[in-house]
Specification:
The complex is a heterodimer of chains A (434) and B (515). By secondary structure, chain A is of the alpha/beta class. Chain A is built from 14 helices and 13 strands. Chain A is flat and about 120 Å long. By secondary structure, chain B is of the alpha/beta class. Chain B is built from 21 helices and 9 strands. Classes of the chains: A alpha/beta (434), B alpha/beta (515).
């Protein structure tokens, strides 16, 4: 016989299996969430509280007997009252007692791997690998509110920040180190002396003198070594930490001139919805400003923004001017993160293009965390020729301005395009159009 | 008995140490080999932590196993149940190998370690080495080497073809694992060591040759034998074939050599575990009987004190508890309870038979040498035949067995109870219930459409109208179709009348075999 101690063997032998399982489960969840959103439509994204996902790929199927059909003839233990020929009413389900629960032993566990996702978890997976580009850098620059965070101790500070515990600890260790006599020790000596004086043999002078000297020495020592010394004192230290601005405002700019069809507006709407959900995950408070324009721009409410059509020419710069106006009036930069998404079919008055470029470069981009341009086309839309606006923006990108743009012509492209714009791996230069 | 712990260091609650383990092993060995005359493989006892026990659990109890997500899934579930306190870990795991490996958990008390040594290292070990099914179907000498080979082979495949590709084959093969065993004896004993060598030869051979069956070009000069008779065709393919994985490995047209090898590995492992399914009750009964005998004897000779004995009885009665059918905790017949009950009963019949026993069990009643009778039963029976032969009226009464008929529609009917008229029926029905044929669907491959669309045809013989679970069948068939590479059809027929009950079909998704 051989006894082997395996306890110190490398741990986590099944780690690889666990990882494979988690990877599979996660992939399954992600796929299911994507599928669910495709069916659900974006409007419902925030409404359902729970999303049930059956993970078929985590099943381990086998050929097994159905429990619902056929004749069975089995033996059970623990008969109490039955005699031959008795009839027993069917148990409610095929479990109850007896063979049912035995046979389903294997099957039951499978259902345990049904995932029920809360809305938060759902969105987490939905927006899993997306990130706001440049968020940190811009945020720090943009944030001017601070919060105080405890950060260790310091030797000076206001009395209200005195840390008594730490101070007393220093005091105690110093007193021990310097052998400051404890009051109790002195009291004990004094009691001893008293006892000696009270006793009959008061002639033990030598002992008495020794005690007196001792007491004297201890008293002077405890005077010289203070109970609390300035070197003991500690104050709580606080640090100012820049607080990311927790509010964001999202500007939706859209061309509503006659050339924009319902289909195009629908595409734009879907994109805005996604952006809204996404920003909502990152900020406590998200406001939306709708600005629509023809040759004139106006801030409107959501319904007007999407529903009504107008006629007129197309002058994009008006929308930018309107946006700048709104920002100046209501959204100071130190309190708001500003996002803007523009949707258009790419038409613009050709004389306006240079003004658009200037506005964008000098005023809009510097205040925005992110500016995305979505060029919507009709469903069959081939966009072989780049539009005026596209070319204008393209110039800006080429000269290194942070601006993202994509073309979309079908509904099912919205989500991929959105992912592309915000995907985490994305490098700075690749934000240029492809 | 003394409770003086200084003289008797094996008191309940005492921590174990390695010297203690050795002493306990020696004592257990004296009784198990001396009195019960057990015949065992050399033992290797390994002390592990609870986490390692969970690890071992999830990879079907084997110390070496290839990697697959399903083992991770089992780990996740077991761990959850364990952490939430819903389930205790097994005290031991024992592996049918030579040397026989038994795992002991470090958390066990000294008493538990002694119990586990008796139970696993002697009880199970003897059963593995002597039971006919294990001797015939498993190769204790080669299993660890074979698993080592399987693990590294599959790891190499993952490197070469990607985890995802390997996973697809494993997923599909696992779904058909229960259909990957040969149920009837074969001529040659199992030799897994040889397997590894043959795996290499097969790969080389496969590259040189091709399968005559799938010749698509007509032989020069002769006309293709379009109308070979059905019987000839089946014979050529070795049909009908109950071992679905074997058939796929040998004949699936579109599988690559490494995919066939993986199917073979899954098949070998399924075959290795097949005897355990058929002898679960006897195997546990044997181990429980051995530990019960040994622990009592250790108490008799003063090696176990009263405290330890009480601790032992507590855990023993927990293991052999049989909840009644209407009890909340009822989940079928407890194999420990029935196995242990029957073996104790055999001991009683051998030594103190009643007239009833003489009538029902004439071969062994009053035979006296119960050790020999039990050893003979352990060697030559499986659960089903063991019950058929040895279940006594006395035990039927004790466990209050009764037989119920259920047609899935109307009220259940009590057909027999534990009385004079009922004993024979109860015994037969219980034996049937432990028969693998009644537990697992009877599925075989019956035909392949050689000249047409290569459709693979399977048949399920449904006994007593019990058909397959529709949903699960669809999943498994999909896996089967993916391995086969062409359409697959499963027909369910009634075993008695050959009437067709149901049909299932699946077409390959192209996930595994590509044409």
């Amino acid at each position: 016989m051989n006894i082997v101690d395996r306890r110190l063997n490398p741990r986590g032998k099944s780690l690889a299996n666990r990882q494979r399982f988690i990877r599979r489960a996660r992939k399954e969840l992600t796929d299911a969430v994507r599928e669910a959103t495709a069916k659900q439509g974006l409007t419902d994204l925030g409404t359902d509280d729970k999303i049930r996902i059956r993970t078929d790929r985590l099943r381990e199927p086998t050929f097994r007997h159905s429990h619902r059909q056929g004749e069975r003839d089995y033996v059970l233990p623990g008969n109490k009252e039955y005699a031959e020929g008795d009839r027993i009413p069917r148990p409610e389900q095929d479990g109850g007692g007896g063979r049912g629960s035995q046979a389903s032993e294997d099957g039951e566990g499978e259902d345990a791997f049904q995932f029920i996702l809360s809305q938060d978890e759902f969105l987490d997976i939905f927006l899993d690998d997306l990130e706001l580009p440049d968020m940190l850098r811009k945020q720090l620059r943009a944030s001017e509110s601070f919060s105080h965070v405890r950060a260790g101790y310091q030797v000076s500070g206001p009395v209200s920040n005195l840390n008594l515990k730490r101070t007393m600890r220093n005091s105690l260790s110093r007193r021990i180190a310097l052998k400051r006599p404890r009051p109790a020790d002195i009291a004990a000596r004094e009691a001893e002396l008293e006892k000696l004086e009270a006793s009959v043999e008061a002639e033990d002078l030598e002992e008495r003198a020794r005690l007196e000297a001792d007491i004297e020495r201890q008293k002077s020592r405890s005077k010289r070594i203070p109970f609390i010394d300035p070197v003991d004192v500690r104050y709580n230290r606080f640090e100012q930490v820049p607080q990311p601005v927790a509010s964001a405002v999202m500007f939706c700019l859209m061309d509503v001139s006659g050339s924009m069809t319902e289909h195009m507006k629908d595409l734009a709407k879907r994109f805005y919805k996604l952006l809204y959900v996404f920003l909502g995950r990152r900020y406590k408070n998200v406001e939306i400003v709708f600005i629509r324009h023809t040759h004139l721009a106006r801030e409107v409410d959501e319904e007007t923004f999407f529903m009504s059509t107008e006629t007129g020419g197309t002058v994009v710069s008006t929308a930018f001017e309107e946006m700048i106006k709104v920002v100046q009036a209501r959204y100071p930069r130190d309190q708001w993160n500003i996002y803007a998404a523009q949707a258009s079919d790419g038409d613009n008055l050709s004389t306006d293009n240079s003004k658009v470029a200037t506005l964008l470069r000098d005023q809009i981009l510097p205040i925005c965390q992110y500016f995305a341009y979505i060029e919507v086309a009709s469903e069959h839309g081939g966009y072989e020729v780049n539009t005026e606006l596209w070319r204008t923006y393209d110039e800006l990108i080429k000269t290194g301005h942070p601006l993202a743009m994509k073309k979309v012509s079908r509904r099912n492209q919205i989500y991929p395009v959105f992912r592309e714009l915000f995907s985490r791996e994305q490098d700075q230069p690749s934000r240029a159009p492809t | 008995m003394t409770l003086d712990r200084t003289r008797d260091p094996k008191g309940a609650g005492f921590d174990w140490d390695f010297d203690g383990l050795q002493r306990a092993y020696d004592k257990v060995s004296d009784i198990a080999l001396g009195e019960l005359k057990l015949d065992i493989y050399p033992n290797q006892i390994e002390v592990i932590t609870s986490e390692q026990m969970l690890d071992a659990y999830s990879s079907i109890g084997m110390p070496l196993m290839y990697k697959h997500w399903s083992f991770g899934k089992h780990f996740a579930r077991d761990e959850l149940l364990y952490r939430h306190g819903l389930r205790n870990l097994a005290y031991e795991i024992v592996i049918n190998s030579n040397p026989c490996i038994a795992y002991l958990m470090e958390e066990n008390s000294m008493m538990m370690q002694t119990l586990v040594i008796a139970h696993a290292a002697f009880g199970h070990n003897h059963f593995f080495k002597n039971n006919n099914l294990f001797r015939q179907w498993t190769d204790a000498n080669g299993i660890l080497d074979y698993l080592e080979f399987a693990k590294s082979y599959i790891a190499r495949c993952e490197d070469k073809y990607g985890e995802a590709e390997v996973e697809k084959v494993l997923d599909a093969a696992h779904a058909l694992m229960a259909q990957g065993v040969n149920r009837y004896p074969r001529k040659k004993a199992f030799d897994l060591r040889d397997e590894e060598k043959r795996a290499r030869e097969r790969a080389e051979e496969a590259e040189r040759s091709h399968n005559e069956l799938w010749r698509t070009l007509p032989r020069s000069g002769t006309k293709p034998q379009q109308n070979a008779t059905e019987a000839e065709r089946r014979k050529l393919l070795g049909l009908p074939e109950e071992n679905v994985l074997y058939f796929l490995e040998k004949t699936a047209p579109a599988l690559k050599t490494w995919q066939r090898e993986i199917i073979r590995i899954v098949r070998q492992i399924a075959q290795y575990f097949y005897p355990q399914k058929q002898t679960k009750m006897m195997n546990e009964g044997c181990a429980t009987f051995v530990h019960y005998h040994v622990m009592n004897r250790l108490h008799d000779i003063g090696f176990l004190n009263d405290g330890a004995m009480l601790e032992f009885l507590h855990s023993h009665t927990g293991a052999v508890f049989q909840p009644e059918f209407d009890h909340r905790g009822y989940s079928g017949i407890n194999p420990y309870a029935l196995g242990f009950g029957m073996m104790q009963d055999i001991q009683r019949v051998c030594t103190e038979p009643t007239d009833e026993d003489r009538e029902w069990l004439p071969e062994i009643a009053g035979q006296g040498d119960w050790v020999e009778v039990l050893k003979d039963a352990w060697a030559n029976h499986r659960d089903e035949s063991f019950i058929r032969q040895f279940l006594s009226p006395e035990l039927i009464r004790k466990m209050k067995f009764f037989n119920v008929y259920d047609d899935s529609v109307s009220d259940l009917i009590v057909k027999a109870i534990h009385n004079e008229q009922g004993y024979q029926t109860v015994r037969t029905k219980l034996a049937n219930q432990f028969d693998v044929v009644s537990m697992e669907p009877e599925i075989e491959i019956v035909d392949v459409d050689l000249y047409g669309d290569r459709k693979l045809m399977l048949q399920h013989r449904a006994h007593s109208g019990i058909v397959l679970d529709e949903k699960e069948t669809a999943y498994v068939l999909q896996h089967l179709a993916d391995l086969w590479g062409y359409e697959v059809m499963l027909i369910e027929i009634a075993a008695q009348s050959d009437a067709v009950l149901k049909e299932h079909r699946a077409s390959p998704s192209g996930a595994v075999a590509s044409n």
